[in-house]
Design brief:
Elements (H helix, E strand, L loop, with lengths): L3 H10 L3 H9 L3 E7 L4 E4 L1 H6 L19 H17 L3 E9 L5 E12 L6 E10 H4 L4 H5 L1 H8 L1 H5 L2 H7 L4 H12 L3 H19 L4 H7 L5 H12 L3 H9 L3
Amino acid sequence: MSTDLQRQFFEQMGTRHQLQNLYDALPDVFFFTKNRDSRMIWANRQLIRRLGLANENDVVGAYDWEFFPTEVADKYRADDRYVMETGEQIRNRVEVFYDETKILDWHITSKMPVYSEDGSEIIGVAGVIRSYKEGQRWAAPASELEDVVEFMRTSAGAKATIEEIAERAQLSTRQLNRKFQAVFGMSARDFKIRTRLNAAAHDLASSDRSIHQIAMENEFSDQSTFSRQFRKHMGMTPLEYRRSYQRGG
């Protein structure tokens, strides 16, 4: 409940741009607002740059599908709908977002509903995104899985079974999956696949190694399995991804 002091201050402040300038000044933090249709209304300078855009006009009215693989954009939109339909916040959800090299990697996202001026209806959603490593300091559940996640990123972790990973974490397989479901919204096995795909995407974009070689190096059983999983999660084949990245993403 706002006080008279707060109300008078914000009425005097008037323009929204003063607070937006503050959001622009924060390093490695991405802010955005969307309307009821999940179209971008505003993004801070860091997010605009991360999406490869020049200015705010380029992002206004855009959908996530214009920047991200279909599966990723669909997940973002589903979270938007949940927040707007329930009025509940999403706090410290771990999901993929572009890193500084335009590769999908783990980040931590929080979203909250945006209300009309009189508070009678939800008119959109606002959110903040931080890198996974930076966000761990603010997300205790994610911190609990830090060692497991870092192990999964290694070659040994990619080869390990979920049972071996659970044993390493001194958890039962069921406990491990429950923790991953709570933090990442997916099972430990799905997270492991997603992590290997993220690593493979980085290799596709940053090297000229063959797709078969990249599939083997990231512990996929064969190139066909790798291509099928990659298309499912990234919305394009490994070759299409490599070509799109070479064209500038």
